[in-house]
Design a protein that fits this description.
Elements (H helix, E strand, L loop, with lengths): L19 H17 L6 E8 L15 E7 L2 E7 L4 H13 L6 E5 L5 E3 L2
Antiparallel strand pairs: 1-3, 1-4, 2-3, 4-5
Length: 119
Amino acid sequence: GASPSNSGLTPKGMPTNYGAESTRFDFATTNYFQSNAASADNYLIKLASYTDTKWFQETKVADLGTLEKRQKGKYTIMLLKGYTSKDQALQALAKAKDRGFSGAYLVTQDSTGELSRVN
C-alpha cells in the first residue's frame, strides 16, 4: 500500500497564516467596547455636503474642531471632530450654526465609520 504524502501538510504547531489571525483578533477586541456605546471621540459635527468644496469656508470653523472631509458619491461631506464629550460637541455645533452652517447637526460614527444622526 502507498503511504500518505505529507507534502501538503503544515507541521503541527506551525502557524499557517503567520500571525494574521491573532493581529485581527487583537484589533477587534480593542474596538469592541467602543462600538457598544458612542464613546466621546465618536461625536462629530456634519457641517454640510458640497458638490464643489470651493463654497466651503474653512476659516469660519477652523477653531471649532478638526476638519475631516469624506467623499460620498459626487458629494464631499465636511465634518468636525475631536471632541472629548457630547456636551463639547454640542457647544461647537451651536457655534457652527451661529457662523452660518444652519443645517449642521451632530452625528456619531460606528466601528465601520458609518455616520448616524444624533437627535
